[in-house]
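ok, trying the design again with the full structure, not the truncated one.
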């Protein structure tokens, strides 16, 4: 098929692919409840921070290294590192549960030896096995990540659908920049300073009323 790779990537990152992304807010539920994110402007600022200084950037780097892992042992090391980078119990659940769901579905639909691993690692390994373009895989992974958080904000702030889509469209350039960077970044480049997002994920664990798992 002419667009086989594009079809597969769009299927993987579609809300219909059963990874359960809709049930996670990445700590966003807590900051919304505290009034720190309350409109399109503050939502964009929050997402920019998570993408450029937090897990978005790290996930992109981990995905790229998983894609290029030469042995199963190397891939296992990357998976272990990805889990260790989770700053809270909920964020660990978010990446491992989604990764396991992604691997389970991908194994069932296509012949692929994808083990249960943190989400970006599982995606990188699967993309390599399916010979999908690394650049497109990273870009669409980040797009899906941002889109899911926008969807959470639309439901919980509440934010209008049009405003939500406008915020998402304003992240495209940033997503492309991270995608380009992640393809050549070393594992030493992992890290971040999105401390408020990390704290939000911890505080969400004891939030009295919540609709999201993180």
């Amino acid at each position: 098929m002419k667009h086989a790779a594009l079809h597969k990537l769009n299927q993987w990152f579609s809300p219909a692919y059963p990874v359960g992304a809709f049930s996670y807010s990445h700590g966003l539920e807590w900051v919304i409840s505290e009034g720190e994110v309350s409109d399109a402007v503050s939502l964009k600022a929050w997402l920019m921070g998570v993408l450029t200084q937090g897990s978005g950037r790290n996930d992109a780097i981990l995905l790229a290294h998983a894609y290029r892992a030469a042995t199963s042992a190397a891939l296992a090391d990357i998976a272990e590192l990805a889990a260790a980078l989770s700053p809270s119990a909920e964020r660990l659940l978010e990446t491992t549960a989604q990764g396991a769901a992604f691997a389970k579905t991908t194994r069932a639909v296509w012949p692929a030896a994808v083990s249960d691993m943190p989400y970006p690692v599982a995606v990188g390994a699967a993309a390599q096995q399916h010979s999908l373009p690394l650049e497109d895989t990273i870009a669409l992974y980040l797009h899906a990540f941002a889109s899911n958080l926008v969807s959470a904000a639309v439901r919980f702030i509440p934010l209008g659908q049009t405003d939500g889509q406008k915020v998402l469209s304003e992240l495209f350039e940033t997503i492309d920049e991270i995608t380009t960077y992640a393809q050549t970044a070393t594992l030493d480049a992992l890290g971040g300073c999105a401390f408020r997002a990390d704290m939000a994920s911890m505080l969400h664990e004891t939030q009295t009323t919540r609709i999201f798992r993180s």
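Keeping the full-length input from now on. The chain is about 65% helix and 0% strand.
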